[in-house]
Specification:
By secondary structure, the chain is of the alpha+beta class. The chain has one domain (21-135). The chain is built from three helices and eight strands; from the N terminus they run E-E-H-H-E-E-E-E-E-E-H. The longest helix is centred in the first third of the chain and has 17 residues, at 34-50. The radius of gyration is 15 Å and the shape is globular.
Length: 137
């Protein structure tokens, strides 16, 4: 593991390119509704029940990492949060992802999930959160 000497983020690759301290978590949460902020923290707590995760604000999203990055909050809307889970295979047989898209030129499939209420973190999505966590170990 390589640790950035400026922001203390850990990465698998030495000198990995990243948005070092360009944005902090409050930059994403400021001005959001209480509902959206509660959804975000509920998602954080749900992941912490699975295992140790770190939160890495980037230039345009909030990344969650085990050893490697396992999920991304890509949008904090008025009454929802959009989350992407990157997998090496497509999981088409599900009820929770509204979009699955392969990243061009890679074997990565981004699985898009919209959380509108706390109950959206159900058994199905928890199983995918666990899978992402396991792959990120």
């Amino acid at each position: 593991m390589w640790t950035c000497p400026i922001c203390s983020q850990q990465f698998v690759n030495n000198n990995q390119s990243h948005s070092c301290k360009e944005k902090e978590l409050p930059d994403f949460l400021n001005g959001k509704t209480a509902h959206t902020i509660s959804l975000f923290w509920y998602f954080v707590e749900a992941y912490k029940k699975i295992g140790k995760v770190t939160i890495h604000p980037t230039k345009s999203m909030i990344a969650f990492a085990a050893k490697t990055r396992i999920a991304y909050v890509t949008r904090l809307g008025k009454d929802f949060i959009d989350i992407v889970f990157p997998f090496q295979e497509q999981h088409a047989d599900n009820l929770c992802f509204h979009k699955i898209a392969q990243v061009p030129g890679t074997r990565q499939f981004n699985h898009h999930f919209r959380m509108q209420k706390k109950e959206d973190i159900n058994e199905e999505i928890i199983s995918y959160m666990k899978l992402a966590y396991k792959q990120g170990q």
